[in-house]
């Protein structure tokens, strides 16, 4: 693990070899490159192994309920849009319990960065299938195989209007650092779905499985050998639906947008937290209910 100003001496109980360690390292390296200090960051998470990430960083942090990290982030960013907010979530936490908040954050274009540790399994609760588990995947809980179709977060974010959509791989730290830096600098909702092998409970989507399928868009172009243009919506849609034989990593789609706090007149002047508390006005509203 790289030694940075974000290190903190908290006991870490992630499994040896877990991809979360690489994601944590990439986050710290990106924040150093962005010249952030611990006080510049608010890292928010829900429940799950990915949800433990803020405990292992020196920063402002909030650990919320299962699936509710983006709801907390929405409130924090609305209160003070000068905060740099990073949300750490897992595929179960974000795409199952938090699925509606995921869609709401996209539609609002909250100026936050979402990092999804996508290991295609429920790791904290010992190995049930998650929304991104493959159809037919067998686990100790789903002995006859997963009966649900796999959720496609890239395609869902794309058709829902997200302006910054990327995919990373926990073993490719250099690319992940680059993607995090770009995502944080983007004005609006940015998400990185991170392929992250679970060494304990997912025996199918292993490191070797990913390494046979993953290719970098910035190195290998796209599936047809054509140069990738992240501003091309329809090509991004094709990349999102490539299936599991080829898995592109990099910035899938990029377009400018109007961030949520810029859509509200009262927030254009200054953050909500800098306004005086209008107690008398609030009391009148409450009394007239």
What structural keywords apply?
single chain, alpha/beta, eight-stranded mixed sheet, 11 helices
Describe this structure in words.
This protein is an alpha/beta fold and 289 residues long. The chain has a single domain, classed as Thiamin diphosphate (ThDP)-binding fold, Pyr/PP domains (Rossmann fold, 3-Layer(aba) Sandwich). The chain is 33% helix and 16% strand. It is built from eleven helices and eight strands. The chain has helices spanning 19-33, 69-79, 91-97, 99-108, 153-160, 173-185, 207-211, 217-220, 233-240, 265-269, 279-287, and strands at 41-45, 60-63, 84-90, 113-118, 164-169, 190-195, 214-216, 247-254. It has an eight-stranded mixed sheet, sandwiched between helices. Helix 6 (173-185) links the parallel strand 5 (164-169) and strand 6 (190-195). Helix 1 (19-33) crosses helix 6 (173-185) and helix 3 (91-97) packs across helix 4. It starts with 18 loop residues before the first helix and ends with a helix.
């Amino acid at each position: 693990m790289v030694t940075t100003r974000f290190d903190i001496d908290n006991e870490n109980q992630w499994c040896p070899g877990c991809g979360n360690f690489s994601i944590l390292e990439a986050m710290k390296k990106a924040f150093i490159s962005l010249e952030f200090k611990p006080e510049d960051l608010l890292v928010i998470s829900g429940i799950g192994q990915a949800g433990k990430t803020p405990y292992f960083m020196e920063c402002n942090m909030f650990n919320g309920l299962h699936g509710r990290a983006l709801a907390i982030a929405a409130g924090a960013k609305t209160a003070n849009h000068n905060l740099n907010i990073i949300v750490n979530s897992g595929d179960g936490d974000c795409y199952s319990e938090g699925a509606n908040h995921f869609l709401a954050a996209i539609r609002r274009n909250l100026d936050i960065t979402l990092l999804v540790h996508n290991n295609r399994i429920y790791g904290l609760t010992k190995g049930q299938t998650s929304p991104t588990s493959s159809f037919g995947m067998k686990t100790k809980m789903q002995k006859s195989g997963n009966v649900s179709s796999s959720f496609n977060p890239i395609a869902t974010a794309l058709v829902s209007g997200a302006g910054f959509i990327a995919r990373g791989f926990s073993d490719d730290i250099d690319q992940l650092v680059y993607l995090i830096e770009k995502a944080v600098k983007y004005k609006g909702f940015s998400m990185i779905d991170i392929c992250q092998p679970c060494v304990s409970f997912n025996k199918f989507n292993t490191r070797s499985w990913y390494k046979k399928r993953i290719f970098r868009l910035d190195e290998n172009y796209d599936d047809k050998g054509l140069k990738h243009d992240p501003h091309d919506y329809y090509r991004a849609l094709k990349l999102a639906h490539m299936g599991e034989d080829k898995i592109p990593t990099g910035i899938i789609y990029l377009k400018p947008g109007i961030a949520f706090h810029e859509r509200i007149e009262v927030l254009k002047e200054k953050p909500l937290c800098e306004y005086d508390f209008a107690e008398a006005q609030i009391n009148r509203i409450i009394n007239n209910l």
